[in-house]
Automatic annotation (TrEMBL):
The lineage of its organism: Eukaryota, Metazoa, Chordata, Craniata, Vertebrata. This is ATP-dependent RNA helicase ddx4. Keywords: ATP-binding, Helicase, Hydrolase, Nucleotide-binding. It comes from Sphaerodactylus townsendi.
Length: 731
């Protein structure tokens, strides 16, 4: 299953003229790309902005390798910076910043849009009752924010700031923890919730004084669109509206339009410094298996990249290749299929982006015209919304015009983005399939299919979607496309499934050990019983101070609970999990990245891929049920040669199954293994109580061990991650 809304949110006939054939009517008047750099030297690398001929001054998105003369600075209705400094003033933004509504910071709701046809649909939502008081939907506009914060009375304010209405980490719904039930909260989001009684806990986030966005949301139980969690431990299972059980109210339509990406060069090329151990990456053993492997390159110069791409790589702060890049870049340039496994934070994203872009430039791929159906040359899929967005932002360092679409946002917005021109598409699987199903994306020109976090994309959670994708009409067969898979973990069983997607002669690059933890993360395992976790967490966070810390828990409820608890302890905290609306999730990440909330409580939805500067600590309040998940979680720190620390609470009553693989991961990363943990691992091993995934790390290419690699036995089903208690992990 996927992370997406399979909604019929905006059927063609009801899309305000944006259905097929109805485009012109409500088509935005896009801002001209006057400041797009001229393509002086490298015309072949222009995937230029398409222009719909009959659309007046309507240049659509371009796809260009960026020239160092710069990015368009954005003319038109957007006055510049996002993130609360200079606010957009409406009108059509620079390039694709259409639809921006008034001065609302990062919020771009079409219902308040000052552009893009001024669609004004506003959800009509009945007031709901909270603590016996009818609360009106306040909308999300800034006007309401000054009074929509939670804990207005008697609530928590973090520290000394009078942060009334600060954006909060939790949405309150779900009750049951008995916290703060006497608080008289107000909320700005009164849409129907899905059956959880709101007991009113929540937490202020320590947000800056006048943000006042009501972080205290209701709506527990579904994830923003017309879908809900129906189970799935270790992964989310969604079903559509029609399948809802128990007469739950339909989820509200998703109206969220994410803010446009930054347009100024500083923001585009923002990066953090490599750490003291970056050079030590060179010492990691790399194994490449498969026939006729091209030689690794040692420097970016050796890759022979075009000048513009090289300049942008330098601007991105990349001067030296990481091992996975040394090996992957020539392999992709040689047009081979690739499965690459390298430790977290070691630059896998650039390892596929750079050679794909180079090839597209070499091939002279030109911009697609504004069309109702786009046919991208490259599709990159990843399991979470935040991750695809991150990949999109990374790709913008190197080229103009990639497009990102993901769930939790307005479908029609995604479609509009695509229709403006789309050579490279970053997408979550559900939204991708949705748009393919609406015939807005055709696959016949696809040359590159990238699965980031590929083991996750192929397991039971997303495997069926991936299968649907490769059997979608027009999808070139595997020998006619290049398929690339990247992850830090690649269990053998998943490797076998991958054969269905890859050419037989694919190459397999392993940097270090498959599934190994990043050696720059100092791992500590503490024996902490379930009942002591709260106090221990607070104690540790108090000793850490303001350093950025991600706290992982296994369920959404617990994420709410711990976020609230920490705020009550005056620890500036926000949270991210699958029950939060997409807007809230993005706000939470933004607050965490900016340091406004140095603590982020998360479920495994934030475990993979997220690349956030200066995350000093990861704390696993609950250990995940699979060791792969553990490796990804702790990999949010210690990235790119920087050092990090991970502390995990081990509750023998709950975590014995993971003891054995945990010992292995610790030992492989030369970490101290507590003797009590070894004992538990031994005894669980003796009684045959071990996590199967713990034995699944392939030290090398699984083809070496498996004669029946592509046998029928493996081609059918998808592999379940070991699942236990999570009510969601992925979104
Ligand atoms: N050659 C390089 N030199 C300097 N920094 C780099 C280089 N390559 C990548 N980076 C930076 O390293 C960080 C980690 O890269 P990336 O997110 O691609 O890691 P990853 O291997 O995909 O991690 P994960 O397994 O967690 O997804 C990013 O901030 C990226 O910009």
């Amino acid at each position: 299953m996927d992370d997406e809304d399979w909604d019929t949110e905006i059927p063609d006939h009801a899309s305000g003229g944006l259905g097929k054939g109805g485009l012109t009517a409500s088509q935005p008047r896009f801002q001209a790309l006057g400041s797009l750099p001229a393509r002086a030297n490298e015309t072949s690398c222009v995937f230029s902005q398409s222009i719909k001929p009959d659309a007046g001054n309507d240049p659509s998105r371009g796809f260009q390798c960026m020239q160092d003369s710069g990015w368009p600075t954005g003319s038109g209705g957007v006055s510049g910076k996002q993130n609360g400094e200079e606010k957009p003033t409406g009108g059509f933004g620079s390039r694709r910043s259409f639809g921006n509504r008034g001065p609302s910071g990062n919020l771009f709701e079409e219902r308040k849009s000052t552009g893009f046809g001024r669609v004004q649909y506003r959800e009509v939502i009945a007031p709901f009752h909270f603590n016996g008081v009818a609360v009106e939907e306040g909308g999300d506009d800034e006007d309401n924010q000054s009074h929509t914060g939670f804990f207005r009375r008697g609530g928590m304010s973090n520290g000394s700031d009078a942060r009334r209405g600060g954006r909060g980490p939790t949405r309150g719904g779900r009750g049951g923890y008995g916290l703060f039930t006497n608080n008289d909260c107000e909320m700005n989001d009164a849409r129907p919730h899905s059956g959880f009684k709101r007991e009113g806990f929540g937490a202020s986030s320590g947000d800056s004084a006048n943000r006042g966005r009501g972080g205290f949301r209701d709506r527990g139980g579904y994830k923003g669109s017309n879908e809900e969690v129906i189970g799935g431990a270790g992964k989310s299972m969604w079903k559509s509206d029609g399948d809802k059980e128990g007469g739950e109210p339909a989820a509200p339509k998703v109206t969220y339009i994410p803010p446009p990406p930054p347009d100024n060069e500083d923001a585009i090329f923002a990066h953090y410094q490599t750490g003291i151990n970056f050079d030590k990456y060179d010492n990691i053993l790399v194994e490449v298996s498969g026939h006729d492997c091209p030689a690794a390159i040692l420097t970016f110069e050796e890759a022979g990249l075009c000048q513009t791409l090289s300049k942008n790589i330098a601007k991105a702060g990349y001067s030296k290749l990481t091992p996975v890049q040394k090996h992957s870049i020539p392999i992709v340039l040689a047009r081979r299929d690739l499965m690459a496994c390298a430790q977290t934070g070691s630059g896998k994203t650039a390892a596929f982006l750079i050679p794909i872009l180079e090839q597209m430039m070499q091939d002279g791929i030109t911009a697609t015209q504004f069309k109702e159906q786009q046919e991208p040359e490259c599709i990159i899929v990843a399991p979470t919304r935040e991750l695809v967005n991150q990949i999109f932002l990374e790709s913008r360092k190197f080229a103009h015009g990639p497009v990102v679409v993901y769930g939790g946002t307005q479908t029609i917005h995604s479609i509009r983005q695509v229709m403006q021109g789309c050579n490279i598409l970053c997408a979550t699987p559900g939204r991708l399939l949705d748009i393919i199903g609406r015939e807005r994306i055709g696959l016949s020109k696809l040359r590159y299919l990238v699965l980031d976090e590929a083991d996750r994309m192929l397991d039971m959670g997303f495997g069926p979607e991936m299968k649907r994708l490769i059997s979608s009409p027009g999808m070139p067969p595997k020998d006619k496309r290049q398929t690339l898979m990247f992850s830090a973990t690649f269990p053998e069983d998943i490797q076998r499934l991958a054969g269905e997607f890859l050419k037989t002669e694919y190459l397999f690059v392993v940097v270090g050990q498959v599934g190994g933890a990043c050696s720059d993360v100092q791992q500590t395992i503490l024996q902490v019983s379930q009942y002591d976790k709260k106090d221990k967490l607070v104690e540790i966070l108090n000793s850490i101070g303001d350093k950025r810390t991600m706290v992982f828990v296994e369920t959404k409820k617990k994420a709410d609970f711990f976020a609230a608890l920490l705020c009550q302890e005056n620890i500036k905290t926000t949270s991210i999990h699958g029950d939060r609306e997409q807007r809230e999730r993005e706000e939470a990440l933004c607050d965490f990245r900016s340091g406004r909330c140095p603590v982020l409580v998360a479920t495994s939805v934030a475990a993979r891929g997220l690349d956030i500067e200066n995350v000093h600590h990861v704390i696993n309040v609950d250990l995940p049920s699979t060791i792969d998940e553990y490796v990804h979680r702790i990999g949010r720190t210690g990235r790119c040669g920087n050092l990090g620390k991970a502390i995990s609470f081990f509750d023998p009553l709950a975590d014995s199954a993971v003891a054995q693989p945990l010992v292995k991961v610790l030992a492989d990363a030369q970490q101290e293994v507590p003797s009590w943990l070894e004992e538990i691992a031994c005894s669980s091993c003796a009684v045959g109580f071990s996590n199967p995934r713990g034995n699944m790390f392939a030290s090398v290419d699984s083809r070496k061990f498996s004669q029946g690699f592509q046998s029928k036995e493996h081609s059918g089903g998808f592999v379940a991650s070991n699942t236990s208690a999570a009510d969601e992990s992925w979104d």
